[in-house]
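testing teh design pipeline on a random one, pls ignore if ur not involved
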């Protein structure tokens, strides 16, 4: 697999990662191990996913050296007080059976906990060597700006829902101003991209699938993508996005798919979106 990287505030992040949300037990172990064998070097998990043990087992079974793998995990929004966050990270590492995370993110903001306390705890986790880099997820442009101002260490990433149906240009621009990268979750819209006629037509011109076009649309903008699949045959397809380039008119056409109601992930604890 040809791999590309995104650099942000000192971090070098593999641009395509393997997302593990909703994967459990043996399936998760198998898919993580297979992804790494195929050349993926970025694995994304979270405390809330309930699969960190399986992810860690997959990492070990892959035979790939730990130093070559970029592991991201996240703290749930109920554990954002200092002591709770540090304990949550230690428990995540225990489940993963890893000495450190490469990237530790606040999974969702929580207005009930002062952001300064949470950012301070993230910085402490980094200072203790529990994680190499720190960042956020599901943060709006205003929250990114506030978090970056509060942090002693540079934040390196904001993981957000991002795909052709959702315009995230405002928060992405703020991340760029802060030197942060953006990771897109749900980059193929939970499979909906595969059925999109515009993406299918563009894909046909490049001998690629509509899902590959959706992923390419993002990586061509410098976005990190973490597509999830439970099908081994999809791993290679999702990774084959660095050997073609979308034209400016094609990029414009895909941007045109954005819809005011395009957001798919909107739990009750969501912030006021941009």
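output:
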């Amino acid at each position: 697999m040809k791999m590309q990287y995104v650099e942000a505030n000192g971090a070098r992040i593999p641009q395509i990662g393997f997302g593990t949300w909703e994967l459990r037990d043996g399936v998760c172990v198998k898919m993580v191990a297979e992804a790494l064998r195929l050349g993926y070097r970025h694995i994304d998990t979270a405390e809330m996913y309930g699969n960190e043990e399986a992810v860690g087992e997959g990492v070990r079974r892959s035979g790939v050296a730990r130093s070559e793998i970029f592991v991201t995990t996240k703290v749930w929004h109920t554990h954002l007080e200092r002591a709770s966050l540090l304990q949550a990270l230690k428990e995540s590492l225990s489940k993963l059976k890893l000495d450190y995370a490469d990237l530790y993110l606040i999974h969702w903001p929580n207005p009930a906990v002062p952001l300064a306390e949470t950012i301070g705890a993230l910085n402490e986790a980094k200072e203790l060597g529990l994680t190499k880099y720190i960042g956020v997820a599901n943060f709006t442009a205003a929250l990114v700006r506030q978090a970056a101002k509060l942090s002693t260490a540079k934040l390196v990433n904001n993981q957000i829902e991002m795909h052709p149906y959702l315009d995230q240009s405002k928060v992405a621009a703020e991340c760029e101003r802060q030197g942060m990268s953006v990771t897109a979750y749900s980059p193929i819209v939970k499979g909906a991209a595969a059925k999109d006629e515009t993406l299918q037509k563009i894909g046909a011109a490049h001998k690629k699938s509509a899902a590959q076009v959706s992923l390419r649309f993002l990586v061509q903008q410098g976005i990190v993508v973490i597509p999830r699949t439970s099908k081994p045959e999809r791993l290679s397809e999702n990774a084959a996005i660095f050997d073609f380039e979308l034209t400016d008119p094609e990029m414009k056409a895909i941007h045109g798919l954005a819809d005011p109601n395009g957001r798919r992930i909107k739990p009750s604890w969501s912030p006021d979106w941009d």
